[in-house]
Write a structure and sequence with these properties.
single chain; alpha+beta; 4 helices; elongated
Length: about 150
């Protein structure tokens, strides 16, 4: 798995086609933060002419999951990752360009270190917040990632 936004977007084309075709794109990533955008369009709308909740979820999950993948890659270890739980809050109709940001990357490295040291599975909750072009929060997603050394 590659570590820059363009390579992760190419990965989504081949491995996560629903993400690609609905317009979800990773714009920025480092060890601490990831930013994903998606624009409300006909292909990703709900019957109420706003961004379908599942598309918002894919965008939000990508902000967290891309950072987890990158830090696993950097560890050099074979570590599995899986979303065990998630929850979401929708506070405004999502139209136009929505930007999801996660700044919880600092939580991942400790979980990776702990699973490598103990061999036990670790969990980490990460939050991604989606805002519209006016900066108003439209949705907030929380994902519980589980990490465990394979083998």
């Amino acid at each position: 798995m590659a570590s820059d936004a363009s390579k992760i977007n190419m990965f989504s084309f081949f491995k996560l086609p629903a993400v690609w075709w609905t317009g979800v794109r990773l714009r920025y990533i480092d060890d601490q933060k990831a930013i994903v955008t998606v624009r409300h369009r006909w292909i990703n709308q709900n019957p109420f002419k706003s961004l379908f909740w599942a598309v918002q979820g894919m965008a939000a999950e990508l902000t967290t999951g891309a950072m987890v993948m990158n830090q696993i890659r950097k560890s050099g270890r074979n570590i599995s990752m899986l979303v065990a739980n998630n929850n979401a809050n929708f506070s405004k109709k999502a139209t136009g360009k929505i930007t999801f940001t996660c700044t919880d990357g600092h939580l991942i490295s400790d979980a990776i270190k702990n699973t490598i040291a103990t061999g036990e599975g670790q969990t980490v909750w990460m939050k991604s917040v989606g805002v519209n072009e006016e900066g108003i929060v439209v949705s907030t997603f929380n994902f519980e990632w589980t990490l465990k050394v394979k083998g």
